[in-house]
């Protein structure tokens, strides 16, 4: 009986997402489609549009949104710090260490997390998941870019790189638009809706394209440990961090699912852009994504 319930939970919530990613995987294998150009289109165009549109249409109060933002920030920083401490005594090259830290700190809260929360818990939970995703995206495009840049650049150069990240400007634009209650012209709103609706499917296809490029590095034990931390350690830490926050109901469902997602596909883009250990990062993305149904299915069943 329990097995049937878990199987139904997987089929209704996870399988549709995996099918679209699988289509991207097959497309890459058969037509030799390169993931990097699509990744750049998503990073510089569709991701900012998605962030702007999700925030513009969100109906949560500033207080509710602020709690989710603080929670997501703390969890990201705690995961990165704990992973950095764990790798401090190793003799790994700096690009490898930085890549593994990013792999633990940043989960796939967008192209995997958002549709999963929507399927499993509905629009009310999706509102909280959206704030979590935007916060994670902001951290990725600031803190994540700085960490990646430090493998080859100094701090001042890393900070200058932040000014080239379009998501920051999208976030600033939507905050100002909401604060000053600026009107949204209908053609612009339709363009934003159109771009945002295509962002998540493109991200899922990119996930499949990236996974078919996986190459195994020599750090297999560390890769396995990193996957375990991402899939098991992060949810446990997320649950403990919620004790002082006290999220309940749809908010709790959203933040725990988002916290428990596998490694973000965009970490491979960041690793490639800043010459980190791309094979190690891609392997973590591949394994954590492949194994994620084993951890997410019982979690969804429990939260439901």
State the main characteristics.
Na+/H+ antiporter like fold, mainly alpha, 304 residues
What does this structure look like?
By secondary structure, this protein is mainly α. The chain has one domain: Na+/H+ antiporter like fold (Up-down Bundle). Helix 10 packs across helix 13. The model has no long low-confidence stretch (mean pLDDT 87).
Give the helices and strands, then pairings.
Elements lengths: L1 H12 L1 H17 L3 H22 L5 H26 L6 H12 L7 H37 L5 H8 L3 H14 L6 H26 L8 H26 L3 H11 L6 H8 L4 H26 L1
Q: So what's the overall shape?
A: globular
- The number of helical segments is 13
Mean pLDDT: 87
User: Regions with pLDDT < 50 over 5+ consecutive residues?
Assistant: none
What's the N-to-C terminus distance?
Answer: 16 Å
Strand % is under 5%
- Radius of gyration from CA coordinates: 18 Å
Percent of residues in helices comes to over 70%
CATH architecture: Up-down Bundle
The fold-level CATH name is: Na+/H+ antiporter like fold
What number of domains?
1
Determine the structural class based on helices, strands and strand pairing.
Answer: mainly alpha
Major sheet characteristics: none
The succession of helices and strands, N to C, reads HHHHHHHHHHHHH
CATH top level assignment: Mainly Alpha
